[in-house]
């Protein structure tokens, strides 16, 4: 083991570290900072050429966060949250990247980040009780801890459509957008997908392009973001009372303050329900989640919200057929709720066409566009540029790209082939000293990711301190604790309405992927309470040796 505080060294051609961290997004950066504060040697390996994770890769037009920036930001440093100035209620991607670069500089993180380097394998050596990792540059690293900060939505999904390579024009994926500006002026653009990314990109692309054709398989619920420049008085007020906002955030189900109404719709009069719906619509964004305590478990309440949003869509979209096509039929928030700026109104433009690929599926990509249907029913749609807004192999996709092997050479990918198995979303039995920040089985994507990340980073930091203080070399999740946690994660999900559609929460967007509800939907506060209980009992459910 490298003594805490020692500098990374190379022996037997392997760089010796206390911890290898994969990914330089919000999670990896804070983990690096935390471990360095604790006197450990740690290094981040990052496939991209810069930090930022999600905000490094998702540079598509209109990309911006949909949780308010005053909350979607680190809270571990009072100085940082006081000094940083957000310009808009929901920061655009470029500003988020500026913030992340500021964090890197402020905490002098760059010297321990290796960019343009993918971790290819991480194998647990049972003799030395260390992780032996290799990178895409052929380096070898030996580390006591291996920490996956690989993100929940980072493995872009490009569907396997026949003829996909035959299109002769430029092809882009929202999740792997080029760094240089893409100019759609005078171009006919085709976009496949209508999830959060597309819903942000479509209004902007439509303004530039000669014509935009949107290929929609499933319509999504979207509420207005009501983005705006931040009022300096509002910012001053929050900064004077930041601790109380952060505390309210942590007490909230989603890990951010939605000014939630604690009542179920069943406890409210029709007038109160109507007022709450209107209030939430005016508040905008994901505050919509805070309207009714029972919307995820009570179909009648959920229908009330769904009908309300469908009515709004019908009011916004002039062509009734297009409005009907844009109206989601699923349970409200079964797929992740989207927040938009002028999305539905975009379909009133003359240069935008919505095409239903649910009824007539895409048959193939052609040299000049795409073909839908077959035989006499076939339709060809031509365009100059093709955009895939087709999402991600969520939660497990980026972990599965790394050859991770634990005790007995067991592969994590194989262990998780019937769905991910973790204890608290942090560790998987048989993989000692391997941590997944916001891993499957943790609240992650149902929360303010930054808040969840901070909780995990601090928890992992505490585990390592505990191990060092008590002279433990390894920590490993117990099989029975893991089984109980996986069952609990499933039970909680089964009690909601969220199992009823083909969402990426279930892996249902990836053909062949096991349909298992991956994130923990029990809420941020109960999850934190469970983690704290586990710690208070000497890390109950883990074996320390
Ligand atoms: P997504 O929500 O998974 O949407 C992907 C879209 O592509 C869906 O409309 C999907 O249709 C369609 N699609 C996928 N495969 C297809 C195929 N083979 N043929 C036709 N259509 C296909 O992905 P996303 O929009 O990138 O968003 C993913 C998540 O990232 C969001 O849910 C959110 O959590 C996060 N995100 C957040 C923000 C933000 O903070 N503002 C912005 C963007 C993304 P089906 O629904 O029919 O599968």
Furnish the topology, listing elements before pairings.
Elements: E1 9-11, E2 14-22, H1 26-37, E3 42-45, H2 54-57, H3 78-83, H4 93-106, E4 113-114, E5 119-125, E6 130-135, E7 140-148, E8 171-173, E9 188-192, H5 196-208, E10 211-216, E11 222-224, H6 232-240, H7 242-251, H8 270-283, H9 299-316, H10 320-326, E12 338-340, H11 343-346, E13 352-356, E14 362-365, E15 369-372, E16 379-382, E17 385-388, H12 397-400, E18 403-405, H13 412-415, E19 434-436, H14 449-469, E20 475-477, H15 479-494, H16 524-536, E21 542-544
Parallel strand pairs: 2-3, 2-7, 3-4, 5-18, 7-19, 8-17, 9-10, 9-17, 10-13, 11-12
Antiparallel strand pairs: 1-2, 5-6, 6-7, 14-15, 15-16, 20-21
Helix pairs in contact: 1-14, 9-10, 14-16
Bound molecules: NADP nicotinamide-adenine-dinucleotide phosphate.
Describe the structure.
This protein is an alpha/beta fold and 545 residues long. It has two domains: 15-51 and 109-154 and 393-544, 3-Layer(bba) Sandwich (FAD/NAD(P)-binding domain); 171-247 and 300-388, no CATH class. Helix content is 31%, strand content 17%. It has 16 helices and 21 strands. Bound molecules: NADP nicotinamide-adenine-dinucleotide phosphate. NADP nicotinamide-adenine-dinucleotide phosphate binds at residues 64-66, 153, 159, 174, 192-198, 200, 217-218, 336, 357, 362, 389-392, 445, 502, 504, 509.
